[in-house]
Fold this sequence. Notes:
Layout: E1 2-4, E2 6-7, E3 11-13, E4 18-20, E5 23-26, E6 36-39, E7 42-46, H1 62-78, E8 83-92, H2 97-109, E9 115-119, E10 122-135, H3 140-143, E11 153-159, E12 164-170, E13 173-182, H4 186-201, H5 207-214, H6 223-246, E14 256-260, H7 263-269, E15 279-282, H8 287-301
Helix pairs in contact: 4-6
Amino acid sequence: MIIGVDHGYSAMKTAHICFPSGIVRYEHEPYTNRGVLRIEGKYYVCGTGRQPLLRTKTENEQYYLLTLAAIAQEIRFRKAPRKAEVVLAAGLPLTSFGREKKNFRDYLLERKNPVVFEYEGELYEIRVLDVRLFPQGYSVVAMHPEIIRDEPSVLLVDIGGWTIDIMRLDNGVPNAATCRSLEMGVIRCQDEILEQVRRDTGLSITEVQVERVLNGKSCSISEEAKNIILTYGRQYVKRIVSAIMEAGFDLQAVPAVFLGGGARLFERNVSPQDRLCRLITLPDVCLNAAGFERLAGQILKR
Length: 302
């Protein structure tokens, strides 16, 4: 089977599953079975917090282990056999795609094959037959071809945890000269909000609370803290729009598609007064992984 995996700093995503990208190693069996990966006699609790910033995702074994957890969860969602042959479909930012492609493919492929492990008490035996890599963000075209139909130029803005990856499509093809990666992801926004709430109210709220308020969901914190969160959310959106314009992209002239974890912020905080040419938001965080999967499927069919 083909399984798409989006390796984010904030969260791991497959076509149907999303969980935080943190991982903690335990020397002995942990207190819970939830999110527990057991491999080669070692225990790891997956889905706690987030990954620390790494220069590349191949620096240590963390993302490999999180990939196994993602595969197990996706197989369980599909009710598929736990002994399986898998083609992995994953992604990299277009700005570093050529530089990191070989190392990331080797990282995911050149391990013990098949790999045998337990996830949440169930035994898996997975043979990775191949790894297919695609540019992040561009995979959205595989899922939503209608967004570029009849549009000669479209800007794709993928708002991730740490970076915002920008590319322009001309006649449906990425223009490599236009690719940019800005270190202005949602994590930066959340960290600033946490610090400001602490300064103004003395409260130490959590990232999860911030995320809920930004997404318009209920949360039992003070109105003062909520107002700070919402104010900073609006300011963050304006900063992104300004940074995109400064990078040479005119959002008032070219339609823009915002996707990733921060896309919902644009739904709530962009108004007609911003005079954007055309705003399309795709807030489904699993969209990249689903796109990787579909692109890999099209290649394998050919």
